[in-house]
Amino acid sequence: MSSATAGGAVRVGFIGGGAVNFGGAEGPWDHASRLERIPGVKIVSIADKIPGKAQEVLDERKGREHASAYEGCTVYEDYTAMLREEKLDAVFIGVPPFAHGHTQRPIELDCVQAGMHCFIEKPLSVKPVDEVRAYMEAVLEAQKRQNLVVSVGYMFRYHPALRRMKQLLSNHESQTGARLTYVQLTYNCAYSQLDHPFWWRKELSGGPIVEQATHFCDIARFIGGDVLEESIETKSLCDNHPSGAGKLHAVPEVVKEGEIPSEQRIPRLTVAHWRYGSGAIGQLTHGVGLHHKRYEARIEVWADGLRITVSDCYTPNCQLSFRQGDTDDEVVETFPDADPYQEEDDVFINAIRTGDQRNVQSPYADAFKTYGLSWAVRHSSEV
Fold this sequence. Notes:
By secondary structure, this protein is an alpha/beta fold.
C-alpha cells in the first residue's frame, strides 16, 4: 500500500520541466501551480532532458508562497532513474508530443509498469493510430492489472460551462423529447507568440488538429457522443495554396518555417464535418489566424427549441448563453471562478487517495478514442 492510500502524502514526480507542468508565456494552465495548493501533495522530483532548466524552474518555485511543497525535491536528467530511485505515487507527464506515446519513447508504459499513477498531457502521441494501438493497449493492460489511475489532460470535461451545456441538453430532451441535432466547434489560435519550433512541424507535433484542436475533438465527443469516423470530410488551407491565402505574416522568427519541408508545414485552416451515431451533425473549424496571446474559442449546440453557446472557455470571461422554448429572450450565465485545471488535478489526486476513479472524466481508454478522432480529421484532409 502506498503512502497516499494509507492516508499519507501523495508523492509526485514531474516528467518535463516546461510550460505545461510549470507555466509559461502562453497562459496560466500549468499543473505545478495547482498541485502545490492541494494539502498533502509533495513534489518529490523533476525529470527533464535539460536538467539545468529544470533546476531553474525548481529554484524559482522555492521562492514562492508554496515553497514547502518542493522541500527536498530532486532534479533528474533521466526519468527512468527517477522512477528507480524515488518512492513516487504519481507522475505528471508533460513533454512535447513527439517525446512520448510510442515504442521509441515509452514514457507512459515505463511509468505504469513501475506502478505509477499517471496524469498525461495531450496529445497521447504523434504517430498514426494504427502505429500506436498496440502500445496503448499495453499501457491499458498494465494499468488495469495494477488498478492504477491514468488520466489525460482534457480539462474542458471539468469546466462548469461545458457541464452546464450537457445538463441543459439532457433536461431539454427529458422535457420535450427533442434531441441534439448539431454541434459546432470553432477554435482560432493566436500564433504570433507560439515560438516552439516543433509545434510548426507536423511530424513533431502531430499538426494543429492532433496537438491543439484535440481539445475540441474531445468536446465534440463529450457533448455529442460517438462520431462515425467514416462520415468525416475535411478541407484544409495550406501555406502553399496558389491563391496565397495561406500565407501567415507573424510566424515567430525562431520557427524558421522556410526551412521546414512543405509537406511538414501545418495547415492554416482546417474545416471538418461529420455525422454522429445519434444522427446529429458535427462541424469543427480550426484556424491559425490570430496575433498576440488570446485564443478565440466557441462551442454551439442546437436541438429543436434550444440553442446553447459557450464562448471564451479558455478565459475567466467564459460565458454560456441559451435560448429555449417559445421566447426570443436569451439567458446568459458566467463562470468567473472556473478553473478546470485545478479541478482535473484535484480529481486525479483524490482518485489516488480513495481508489475511486468514477470522477475521472478523461481516463486513458476514452482519451484514445479522442486521439483516434483527431487523426481521422487530419487524415481526411490529406487524402
